[in-house]
Specification:
Chain lengths: 386, 362
């Protein structure tokens, strides 16, 4: 065990810090759940890609830097420290990109990866359906093979950023006689294809952060299928998925939230009468710190050839509930002002805590609800009966 | 940057774990509650494994290892609810003696005896109301104000203080505080030594608490798989599963802070305040939750003397309050974190505050 950064790691930190200091927009971008904000964020992805900072863990041939997980953590720390824009390209970078590299054909990699990396083509994820939420294997939308095409019918829902994205990667039932985990395939669909209807869904903040997608005899070439036919479930759940569990929410994000929370408390400490608030602030700091330490430990283990499996569920439960706890605490500090939207004349410096609080309510739901994660922990990590 | 244990550290921890799981059975722990309250043969076995000598510096005949080498062993001691005072004696008292040995002949001599397996030392930190295992110790490290006294146990009068945990053998000592031969550190050196001891004590007890939590979860998972109601194992019910999953989450996010704090203590225990307090708080919370949920999952059986669970639960309830209770450690974090000048944030994961910036709590 050596908990010091090497000179190379420090140099990387310095390089990232410099680059971000030069490039991060001085004015915060608009929300990427608006048309203008989305395009601003797309532009930012392009800037990142031009500096080869878009996805540092990707191989050099795909515009990455071949960074290991510790280097990735350093990058993320600097990224959040600099207050750089949130990643509108998240689905591409963290979800589809690594899966494409593992399962894609040479042509698919060539066709999709660079356009994804540059922000030219933005991706949405289309797995959930009205009847298939926690129970994803209940997917009913179909893609039926006709010669060199699939004909797609059905409906996806809760697809993040599908309102403005260019493509969606989906799981469809390619074997209509199949049930549950069998007979599913992983297929890409352009969102402007004939027969595709995207209906925006307003989230708690009123903005169309996700969408329903209707497929009405939509035709896509068979070449849009990732991996073997009827192997979609395995690809979706592949080992790479567990590493993504590590990367979905980097600890730096929560460490910076904890830092802002501590600053908020310091600023308002004389007005806070609720004695439990100071403890909650300290708890928030400890939680963020514990998540960071745990991630460094996991990253070190993986770099030495270790694996993570169902442990990713421990992470998901922890960070999502930490995020709620931190934002609840911030609203407690703000007191009656907490309900005011930032532009309300009496709001003063309430900042964007309310926005963060609303979003934190979704953490225990998306990427597998925390109840499902707890089932996984009990059954797969602890070995309790199903 | 590498947050893993070395192969040697892992091998040692694994082999000690195997030994402990084989030898330290609940029956054996219960047997030690009768009579003198010590399992002499078990202690002898621990000596043969070289465990008490691990942290004795090589110049005093020991193995010259450090807290990081021992931290996973401490966790395993908790897992089996070891009643013998290995962690306090080998990991907290011994390094304190080592810290004082340069200026104190008696400390150096006692270290030699520990390395040879001939002496046991109990420690009475001023934060703890009683001295654990003073009755079987040959020497006592005691506080008089901030001075450190090294007292032969037969020169002290020991008043027994019964604990809820029958494995904890507590005493309050009385001794001649004016006898000059006992004093091994004056006020100033003593304050530093007690402060370092407290950080060590907090971290090592955090590891014990984590092990206790894991031990209770393991027993409850087994029980929930065996016990049937409504024609199926109770563990198939989601409410029962989620009790256990919650314990697993808390334990997992106590683990890294503990290892990180052990690293800090091994480097410089006087700078380890924040890491140590974080570790102790996180582990204390994990252990309390595990005790509560484990009892719940056992039903009425969990409320009995017969069920082994209380061996672990009572230890957890006791240790969570020792070596600084939650209030003490929270106060330290408050004083540091909420101060206007403290730098935190994503780039500071491994940074440590200078000790001057902290209270010299001891
Ligand atoms: C902000 C946000 C973004 C999202 N983005 C995407 C996206 O881009 N693409 C996509 O495909 N999906 C997306 N989702 C959907 C998400 O994956 C689902 O919401 C999630 O899987 C839960 O499904 P559900 O909403 O249908 O809830 P349900 O499955 O109906 O669950 C409702 C409640 O019942 C509980 N429950 C259900 N089954 C069990 C069980 N077996 N045991 C215990 N409790 C149970 C759940 O835990 C939950 O509390 C997003 C969701 C949110 C909130």
């Amino acid at each position: 065990m050596d908990l010091n950064y090497t000179p190379e790691q420090n140099a990387l930190r310095e390089e990232v810090r410099q680059w971000l200091a030069d490039k991060v927009p001085a004015q915060p971008l608009q929300s990427f759940d608006t048309k203008e904000g989305f395009e601003q964020h797309r532009q930012w992805e392009k800037t990142l890609a031009e500096g080869n900072w878009g996805m540092v863990t990707w191989p050099v041939e795909y515009g990455g830097r071949g960074c290991d997980l510790i280097q990735w953590l350093i990058f993320e720390e600097e990224y959040y420290r600099a207050g750089a824009p949130l990643r509108v390209n998240q689905n591409g970078i963290f979800l589809l990109g690594p899966t494409l590299m593992e399962y894609g054909t040479a042509q698919q990699k060539e066709r999709f990866i660079n356009a994804m990396a540059s922000g030219e083509e933005m991706w949405a994820q289309g797995w959930s359906e009205p009847g298939a939420g926690s129970d994803m294997a209940a997917i009913r939308s179909t893609a039926i093979r006709e010669g060199e095409e699939y004909v797609i019918n059905g409906q996806k829902i809760w697809s993040t950023r599908a309102v403005f994205a260019d493509w969606v990667f989906c799981i469809f039932r390619t074997d209509p006689a199949s049930s549950r985990h069998q007979g599913l395939s992983f297929i890409f669909v352009p969102l402007d294809a004939p027969g595709v209807t995207v209906r925006p869904i307003a989230q708690l903040d009123g903005l169309p952060g996700f969408a329903e997608i209707f497929f009405d005899d939509v035709r896509v070439p068979v070449a849009n299928r990732l991996g073997e036919e009827n192997q979609g479930w395995r690809i979706a759940m592949s080992t790479a998925g567990f590493e993504r569990g590590l990367m979905l929410r980097s600890p730096a994000r929560f460490q910076q939230t904890a830092k802002r929370l501590v600053e908020l408390y310091r600023q308002h400490r004389d007005e806070v009468l609720d004695l439990s608030v100071a403890d909650a602030v300290v708890k928030a700091y400890m939680g963020a710190q514990a998540y960071a330490l745990s991630t460094y430990q996991t990253a070190s283990k993986l770099m030495k050839g270790g694996k993570i499996g169902a442990e990713a569920s421990l992470n998901k439960v922890f960070w999502s509930e930490l995020d709620q706890q931190m934002h609840e605490t911030a609203l407690s500090i703000l007191g009656a002002r907490a309900e005011l939207l930032p532009h309300a004349p009496a709001a003063g410096a309430v900042g964007n805590w309310l926005d963060g609080f609303l979003f934190a309510q979704s953490g225990p739901i998306y990427a597998g609800t925390n109840e499902i994660q707890r089932n996984i922990i009990a059954e797969r990590l602890l070995g309790m009966p199903r | 940057m590498d947050f893993t244990f070395t192969e040697d550290q892992q091998l040692l921890a694994d082999s000690v774990a195997t030994f402990l799981h084989r030898e330290v059975t609940p029956e054996r722990i219960r047997a030690s509650w009768e009579g003198e309250g010590s399992d002499t043969r078990l202690w002898q076995q621990l000596v043969e494994l070289g465990l008490p000598a691990m942290l004795v510096p090589e110049e005093h005949g020991g193995l010259g290892m450090n807290e990081l080498d021992f931290i996973q062993i401490a966790q395993e001691c908790g897992r089996v609810a070891l009643a013998e005072p290995l962690v306090e004696m080998a990991m907290i008292a011994t390094p304190m003696l080592a810290q004082l040995a340069a200026g104190s002949q008696p400390c150096a001599r006692v270290l030699q005896q520990i390395a040879a397996g001939e002496a046991r030392v109990a420690i009475g930190h001023p934060l703890n109301p009683a001295v654990a295992d003073a009755g079987i110790a040959d020497w006592l490290l005691l506080a008089s104000g901030r001075e450190v006294h090294l007292v032969p146990s037969d020169a002290a009068t020991l008043i027994r203080q019964d604990s809820v945990d029958p494995s904890r053998r507590l005493y309050t000592p009385e001794w001649d505080r004016t006898a000059p031969t006992y004093r091994v550190a004056g006020e100033e050196a003593g304050a530093a030594a007690w402060c370092a001891a407290l950080n060590r004590g907090a971290v090592l007890n955090a590891a014990l608490l984590l092990g206790l939590a894991q031990g209770m979860v393991a027993q409850s998972v087994t029980y929930a798989g065996d016990r049937e109601q409504f024609g199926r194992p109770i563990g198939a019910n989601q409410a029962v599963k989620h009790h256990m999953a919650n314990c697993a989450v808390q334990a997992e996010f106590a683990r890294s802070p503990i290892y990180r704090a052990a690293y800090a203590v091994a480097q410089d225990p006087a700078r380890a305040h924040i890491a140590a307090s974080h570790a102790k708080l996180a582990a204390g919370e994990a252990a309390l939750l595990a005790a509560k949920n484990a009892i719940q999952v056992h039903g009425a059986m969990g409320y009995t003397w017969e069920c082994n669970l209380h061996i672990w639960a009572k230890r957890a309830w006791a240790l969570e309050k020792n070596w600084g209770d939650a209030g003490f450690h929270q106060e330290r974090l408050h004083a540091w974190l909420l101060e206007d000048t403290t730098d935190i944030g994503a780039e500071h994961t491994f940074d440590y505050p200078a000790p001057e910036a902290l209270d010299s709590a001891a």
